[in-house]
Design a protein that fits this description.
alpha+beta, two-stranded antiparallel ribbon, 4 helices
Length: 162
């Protein structure tokens, strides 16, 4: 049985073959085809550094239809990160490639090393912006809100308190 995954991609380090972080993300989106059918790709956006990272990030999202279960998809994405040169030695550090499963068409998944929906995606404009381009109506199984609604909550101005 095939499922659809919303995958977030990011980079803030150059790659010896692909070049800029933007080019890394574009190349990674092409590589996703090895995991299933890439149904949609967002544009690549430039975002501010997060945590101790010093460099700006290139971020994007893709919808991938695959026969892989979430655990196998995670393993495949982590293998792809390693092939691009990712070394998991420091949390929040600079990285050549970061790939995260944000949402899964079958709902929620919880295991020791994987939680879907991604636990922090609701607070990250760099995930929700690209995701809203390709999956506006996809609902978060936890909050019941669509990707577009979650993105609007983070980006729409709020009235000042009286």
């Amino acid at each position: 049985m095939s499922s659809v995954y919303l995958v977030a991609l990011g980079s803030n380090r150059r790659h010896h073959r692909y070049g800029s972080p933007r080019a890394v993300v574009l190349a990674a989106m092409e590589e996703l085809a090895a995991l299933g059918t890439v149904m949609a790709r967002s544009r690549v956006v430039s975002t501010a550094p997060l945590g101790p990272a010093q460099r700006r990030f290139a971020n994007a999202a893709a919808l991938v239809e695959s026969e892989l279960d979430p655990q196998a998809m995670l393993a495949a994405l982590q293998r792809m990160e390693r092939e691009f040169g990712r070394r998991r030695w420091r949390r929040w550090g600079d990285r050549v490639l970061d790939c995260d499963i944000v949402l899964w068409s079958e709902g929620a998944w919880h295991s020791e090393d994987l939680q879907v929906p991604h636990p922090q995606f609701r607070a990250r404009t760099f995930v929700l912006g690209p995701a809203a381009e390709i999956a506006r109506g996809w609902r978060d199984p936890v909050s019941g809100l669509s990707v577009a609604q979650l993105f609007a909550r983070l980006t729409q101005p709020r009235p000042a308190p009286r």
